[in-house]
Fold:
Amino acid sequence: MQNQNNNIFLLVKASIAAVCGAFTAAFGWLGWLTVAWVVCMALDWLSGSAAACKRGNWSSAAARGGIWHKFGMILVVLIAALTDAVLGVTVANLPGIEWQVNTLLLPMVLVWYIFTELGSIAENAAALGAPVPKPLLDALAAGQKIVNKD
Structure:
């Protein structure tokens, strides 16, 4: 029985490693950045809903408003990705230019959104009664300040 449990555990580990490896090969670091952003969006929406429930003021209209807000963020990320694609194609086809532009705006937009979402999740955690360490809040604020730098 113990050997069979080990085999299942190894099979699960190997499957997870294979899926992660294939994802990384297909999408690279930018794919993982996108996954982090999607996870942060989901956690923000869920933690915001939980905080509203705790306060006793959850409403379906506010929840829908949050979903529309997330949809708007998705549009902005798509715009950044399309802008990067257009810049990449344009630069690649300009005669005499040896530059290569693979991605420029998309990572900045994703990181900005991730820091924003993480700050909101920390606020929601505090509203749920969890103590949020000041160094974490300071790090999130510093990260957002760096991304917002003009």
The chain has four helices and no strands. The chain has a mean pLDDT of 87.
